[in-house]
Write a structure and sequence with these properties.
The complex is a heterodimer of chains A (115) and B (110). With 115 residues, chain A is mostly beta strands. Helix content of chain A is 0%, strand content 48%. In chain A, the strands form two sheets. In chain A, strands 2, 4, 5, 6, 9, 10 and 11 form a seven-stranded mixed sheet that branches. In chain B, a hairpin with an 8-residue loop joins strand 9 (83-90) and strand 10.
Chain lengths: 115, 110
Amino acid sequence: EAGVAQSPRYKIIEKRQSVAFWCNPISGHATLYWYQQILGQGPKLLIQFQNNGVVDDSQLPKDRFSAERLKGVDSTLKIQPAKLEDSAVYLCASSLRGTGANVLTFGAGSRLTVL
Amino acid sequence: AQRVTQPEKLLSVFKGAPVELKCNYSYSGSPELFWYVQYSRQRLQLLLRHISRESIKGFTADLNKGETSFHLKKPFAQEEDSAMYYCALGPYNQGGKLIFGQGTELSVKP
């Protein structure tokens, strides 16, 4: 089966600019997650979707971050305006269901550098 | 609070030596625990989960609820085991999300 696809793989922007990341989960996976991984730290959940509804966005900095999954498949994560501390790898993951603890399948990640 | 702690950032051993990567968690309910691994230039992937009770690539992990630990062990390390290892907690009935520790880099020297 095809894995979780993410693009772009790398992005360099200046602070206060905007950026968007795209994720295509594994076909049939109802649950989609966006994680932020800052260098030297473990992944931190930003937002979780079940189909096209938000399950958990408690750690999403909503003043600058937004995410959508309009048709319950692909998802986009946007940052506007970016800050230096947003430099990180943004990981998308998907899983079959959203109840209980699941096995997450991760994409390769999108590495963001904010100058 | 729901938290996962991996006290070692780096663990360096020689090939053939035993390995133990430590993981402690904080969670009031019955957790599901996982170990994920990231080899160089590869994606983060599942290594094992406690409910499976299986050995993957020679690694095992036992959930100790009394000590709130889920340490990863392997009796004889191999060079190909060198990677970043992340312990993760799956809180019950919270939509399937995982809470990750900060990771331990395992370096196995020849």
